[in-house]
Amino acid sequence: MTYLRPDIRHPESQRNALGYTRKYYEGALSTLCAGCGHDSVSGAIIQACFELAIEPHRVAKLSGIGCSSKTPTYFLGNSHGFNSVHGRMPSVATGANLANRDLIYLGISGDGDTASIGMGQFVHALRRNLNITYIVMNNGCYGLTKGQDSATADEGSKNKTGHVNPFHGIDLCGVAIELGATFVARSFSGDKGQLIPLIKAALSHQGFAFIDVLSPCVTFNNNPGSTKSYDYVREHMEVTAAVDYIPEKAEITAAYAEGEACVVTLHDGSHVVLRKPDPAWQPTDRIAAMKRLHEARQKGEILTGVVYLEPAGRDLHAMLNTSRRPLNSLRESDLCPGSAALERINAENR
Hints:
Layout: H1 37-52, E1 59-63, H2 67-70, E2 80-83, H3 89-99, E3 104-110, H4 111-115, H5 119-127, E4 132-138, E5 141-142, E6 148-149, H6 172-178, E7 183-188, H7 192-204, E8 208-214, H8 230-236, E9 237-239, E10 242-246, E11 260-265, E12 271-276, H9 286-299, E13 302-309, H10 316-320, H11 332-335, H12 339-348
Parallel strand pairs: 1-2, 1-3, 3-4, 4-8, 7-8, 9-13
Antiparallel strand pairs: 5-6, 7-13, 10-12, 11-12
């Protein structure tokens, strides 16, 4: 018996604009539990990058500790990767991004890694509008340490042992909107039709693009009474909009049902097309987005789709006016302009 992924693929497998098949975007075989929602998220990332024709060597995947943070091994095997310590991925991502803005940064985290030990790191990456796609695989529990409730577990939800959580859960989408993220969305690991376009749009967004993915833990948190179970999420999903992502200069034919549509142009000229079934939802109004999240929470709804989108936000490099060249390409003359420049600076401050 072998657990190796077979290398053989159909000779007529579909290829993207770069000439790669989907296999080129895969990684190692997953060792997560069978049925884990995280594997569905990995599959959505693979499909999104394949469809966008992203060159894998331009992607830097970063993670912390937890079941979710193991998943970068299972996708984009030809990309750069760094597995940091628990909760510290945002700092590593910030340093890497400042050193080389030419890479596409993909942060993978979990509800424990982000909402507990990593919360202090997470909020500062948000307020700096770091240019990164940050995906939280949210199952409401600590899967590696036998299913204890995490900080995102909803008040009143039951874990596998029957314990009722007495604490108010942290809404990571609300935190992200409040602290400055310019793209905020929520999805469900079992809804690839929604999740894949969201990931494609997030990867094309300039600034902090946050996606909170409800990803049920089949071993410890998929029981009756859990608000992060497959059954509960399917029964309580309330979608903000149907999402379609249209790359720059790509010819796409899309059919929409009757209803109001909102087309948002991203910085690179690509478009996110949002069809609004919810009349109370305004995708570019930060206050309205916060209000809609609170209303959904009071009703017991799980709001999915794009919750907030600011297409023209300034990322960290724009705020700091950093060099457009990666630091490893700068020469001594760029970093040390000489004594004459030092004299000018001293003269200005005398």
